[in-house]
Design a protein that fits this description.
The chain is an alpha/beta fold. Helices cover 49% and strands 15% of the residues. The chain has helices at residues 15-26, 33-37, 47-58, 73-79, 90-104, 122-144, 157-168; strands at 4-9, 30-32, 38-39, 43-44, 63-66, 82-86, 150-154. α1 (15-26) packs parallel to α7 and α5 (90-104) packs across α6 (122-144).
Length: 175
């Protein structure tokens, strides 16, 4: 039923957490886009190299891919059978990122390469604040027009829990 699951949304919405829970149920390989993009010390690879590595992952028969990377969303949609868009409020995302930074300050968190320590970054917080204003309408409109894939728009933790339950007990049509 699920072979290629794409999870995206604003930073801090819980993509990594949700993807790990779904991976535990489905046993699909989990790909974190941050692990593809970032090398040690917050050095990113080139866009050409990133796209090449992403293309290799997308061509595999089974996966869960989680991450934002707005310039690859349409490409990932073309390959997946299931789309999960985490449409959380800016306040929730900001709270989660600040909490994550405080909890992991100076350490690399799960889903990131070694030597990418959490830090406070005003520019990053500003991107989170403006994310919904910049992207929400575009993504909701794009997803509304997709009819040949499973599309889930989750707006809070309760909806995430319902999706996890329905995947676990194979009741996806009830969402």
């Amino acid at each position: 039923m699920y072979e290629k699951i794409m999870i995206f949304g604003c930073c801090g919405c819980g993509k990594t957490t949700l993807s790990k829970k779904i991976q535990e149920i489905t046993h699909l390989p989990l790909i974190h886009l941050d692990l593809i993009n970032w090398k040690e010390d917050w050095q990113s690879i080139s866009p050409i190299e990133f796209n090449s590595l992403l293309e290799k992952e997308l061509k595999k028969p089974y996966w869960i891919i989680e991450g934002l990377y707005t310039n690859t969303i349409e490409k990932r949609i073309n390959y997946c059978d299931t789309i999960i868009y985490m449409d959380f409020s800016r306040w929730v995302c900001l709270y989660n990122v600040i909490k994550r930074v405080i909890k992991n300050y100076g350490k690399s968190r799960n889903g990131m390469p070694a030597n990418c320590p959490e830090k406070f970054d005003y520019k990053f917080l500003k991107c989170i604040w403006n994310y919904n204003k910049k992207y929400r309408k575009k993504y909701l409109s794009m997803l509304k027009n997709i009819d040949n894939k499973n599309v889930f728009i989750l707006r809070n933790r309760k909806e995430c829990q319902r999706l996890i339950y329905k995947i676990k007990y194979d009741k996806v049509d009830d969402i």
